Amino acid sequence: MSAVEPRNPRLWTFHGGVHPEQHKAESTQLPIQPATLPSRLILPLHQHIGEPAEPMVTKGDRVLKGQMIARASGYVSAPVHAPTSGTVVDIDDYPIPHPSGMSAPSIVIEPDGADTWIEHQGIERYQDLDPSVLRNHIREAGIVGLGGAGFPTSVKLNPGHIKSIDTLILNGAECEPYITCDDVLMRERADEIISGLKIVAHALQAKEAVIGIEDNKPAALEAMHKAVAGIDNMRVAQVPTIYPSGDSKLLAKILTGKEVPSNKLSLHIGLTCINVGTTYAVHRAVHYGEPLLTRIVTVTGGAVGRQCNVEALLGTPMSDLIAQCGGDPDRLASLIMGGPMMGFAVHRTDVPVIKTTNCILAAAKADLARSRPVMPCIRCGACVEACPVNLLPQQLYWFAKNREFDKVQKYDLFDCIECGCCSYVCPSNIPLVQYFRFAKGDIWVQEREKEKAGIARRRHEARLQRLAREKAEREARRQQKKSALDATAAADAGKERAQTQMQAAVERAEGRRAAAMEQAEKRRAGVDAGPGTDPERKHEA
Amino acid sequence: MLAAVLALTALAATFGLTLGYAAIRFKVEGDPLVDKIDALLPQTQCGQCGFPGCRPYAMAIAKGEADINQCPPGGEATIRALADLLDRDPKPLNPEHGQIKPKMVAVIDERRCIGCTLCIQACPVDAIVGAPKQMHTVVAQECTGCDLCVAPCPVDCIEMVPLQQSIRTWQWPYPEQKAVGSAT
Is it the case that residue B177 has pLDDT exceeding 70? Predict the structure, then answer.
């Protein structure tokens, strides 16, 4: 390999970083171990970033290995598949590995031991496929970022309006102490990783690919060098061992010298970063049609007798894996998912391995840093020196502590990658990252509440408008009725007048007739009495 | 002398016209301060502040008729935000207007509901659906937890329950409380 090494490409550096004790040798003595079949598998519906999957099976259903048991709901989501054949025995809330220690909806499968595959088929020539078809295939396979974030890979492979990806970065840095799952995968399955990388490069139409591996993994470097030999646009870069070089944005900085601007994605500067485990899964999905059913998990820590990497079925309870590796429950002081820098403590050992479980750190007392008392900040600035993304953790700490959330945002809290370097170097043992996580969480909650308040305001205003409109309508109806009533009253009055006029006319006519009759009578009487009598005069008299 | 008078008159006329034009051209509709205050209120529309809704309360604050510490659903955060906006000192919530409670949502016991529509008429955000003599139900997502539907119900079938926390609404606790809040 010495022939290749001098061609190590030019590298850049980032500010800060730390050198924690590595503890990687313990778990790399053995090759990848196949996991024993557990008595039941617990598959949470939410093992990725985005919307949880929707179950497609019901209690009592028989499922085959590789069968989709929950479908993606929404664009940023991923389906879940049955890791082996068996029976769905329950769909309910089960404890999952999460810092809250809460339970979440999960599908529980009791394996039948036969491990019968569902019918599945790979793609013969993916090069002929449109990237969107390829993306969909990867989406249906339930593949998410296996480096730890769990971002759906199909979404990552869609550059959207940004047409060209200059550099595709394959992340094999694995900078966090204790974790070695990527290391052993690269040692043992380098060709498959590169095969997956080619597929990803095709899907993204990337111009070149760079594989970044820390120099504390010589065996992996050698294997990967061999695997890319003869491929024009792919090269392996040996990067110095410094934590957190495995962060996607920092690795991009080391390999290309380009820095992702605040509030932007790597995509915006023509870069995409993908983990080696993920490209391995892409290889299995595209060439063999196998969905994501297993992952390599580092089982390590002082409470484990035989520290190694296990290819575990998703859904395997962590306690099963620890037992398989000769774990001693009495020595277990703390169970951590992930590494000591960025991982979190899980509160019970029966939580399952999920897609993002790269490491189970079953720490014995000796592994844990003695809990030292938290002391006041002395403004020494060590955290500022260590921060790899050039933030001012000390300022952020003061603001977060006093809940001055507008100020933490002004000091770019959301660029914090929560790597833990600041807490690591703090001489006062202040849990800085915890303050930052708290502040981020509270800001998100406030944003959500603001949004909800906006909806409530609109609904309230709509209601007031509706009430006003209804009132106006009622008023209008009342007015209409009133005017209608007036009209009839007027009509009635008219009729009455006509009647009285008629009455008057009738009376007049009657009066005249009576007078005429009287006259005639008188005349007759006058004739009888003799001439000379004037009836009118008489009348007057 | 005359030149100076003329020059000043001309200047005065120019500025007067400009200002007059600007007053028409850049006229501000409504009271922006009320909008700003209203934006900080939680929009529960519960009336605990003594005004019939958040906007009337905002108008009262803007006019100086109400204090900034009368909103229990908003709690300390709202008081602090109002204090910031109005450049006043924050003060504790006035207990006359109620206490800070966890976020609630109304739930109708649908078996007991007689379909009287009184709660529908009381709901300030139209979050209850139903029709006369038909069962009513609360659209939990739109419910602000204002409590206003509880009193009118003639059969007492509406209950306020605290909002359940899920993994998706969970947030990292304030560091000092971590040891206590770890086992949920």
Answer: no
- Which residues neighbour A423 within 8 Å (Cβ) at sequence distance 6 or greater? A430, A431, A432, A433, A434
| SS3 readout for A139-169 | HHCCCECCCCCCCEHHHHCCCCCCCCCCEEE
Question: Is the CB of A437 inside 8 Å of chain B's CB atoms?
Answer: yes
Nearest 5°: phi and psi at A107?
Answer: -105, 130
Residue A267 in tokens: 């995509």
Written as one letter, the residue type at A185 is L
**Which of chain A's residues have a Cβ under 8 Å away from the Cβ of B166?**
102, 104
| Tens-place pLDDT, residues A304-360 | 999 999 999 999 999 999 999 998 888 899 999 999 999 999 989 999 999 999 999
Tokens describing residue A209:
């690919």
Which tokens belong to B97?
């207007």
Beta bridge partners of B106: B160
End-to-end CA distance of chain B: 87
Q: Which of A96, A438, A442 sits opposite B175 (nearest CB)?
A: A438
Task: Match domain A1-30+121-290 to its CATH number in 3.40.50.11540, 3.30.450.40, 3.40.50.720, 3.40.50.150.
Answer: 3.40.50.11540
Question: Which residues have CB under 8 Å from A350's CB, separation 6+?
Answer: A95, A317, A318, A319
Query: Rounded to 5 degrees, what are φ and ψ at A41?
Result: -115, 130
Q: Distance from A453 to chain B by nearest Cα, in Å?
A: 5
* CA A427/CA A269 separation, integer angstroms: 37
The CA-atom distances, in angstroms, between A236 and each of A212, A233, A334, A427 are 6, 10, 37, 38
What is the interface size between A and B, counted as CB pairs within 8 Å? 73
pLDDT recorded at residue A7: 64
Mean pLDDT of all residues belonging to chain A: 90
Return d(Cα B10, Cα A519) in angstroms, integer.
100
Q: Is A60 left (phi over 0), alpha (psi -120 to 50) or beta?
A: left
Mean pLDDT in residue range A62-79:
95
The phi and psi torsions of A248 (rounded to 5 degrees) equal -60, -40
For the residues A203-211, what does the mean pLDDT come to? 91
Taking the domains of chain A in order of start, what are their residue ranges?
A: 1-30+121-290
> What's the rounded Cα separation, in Å, for the pair A52 and A98?
15
- What is the residue type of B119? C
Report residue B17: phi and psi, to 5°. Answer: -65, -45
Calculate how close chain A gets to B40, using CA atoms only, in Å.
Answer: 8
Q: Does A407 touch chain B (CB under 8 A)?
A: no
Q: Read off the pLDDT of residues A143-154 as tens digits, 9 standing for 90 and up.
A: 999 988 899 999
ipTM, 2 decimals?
Answer: 0.80
Q: Which of B41, B174, B180, B184 to mutate to test the interface with A (most CBs of A within 10 A)?
A: B174
pLDDT of residue A267: 86
Alpha-carbon separation of residue A29 from A82, A180, A401, A416 (angstroms): 31, 11, 44, 35
End-to-end CA distance of chain A: 159
Residue pair A76/A152 in contact by the 8 Å Cβ criterion = yes
Q: Is the peptide bond before B56 cis (omega within 30 degrees of 0)?
A: no
Q: What are phi and psi of B115, to 5 degrees?
A: 75, 45
Contact B171 A441 (CB under 8 A): yes
CA–CA separation, A169 and A269 (whole Å): 13
Q: For residues A27-55, b (16+ Cβ closer than 10 Å) or e, as one string?
A: bbeeebbebebbebbbbbbbbbbbbbbeb
Task: Name all domains of chain B by residue range, CATH numbers in brackets.
Answer: 32-97 (1.10.15.40), 102-164 (3.30.70.20)
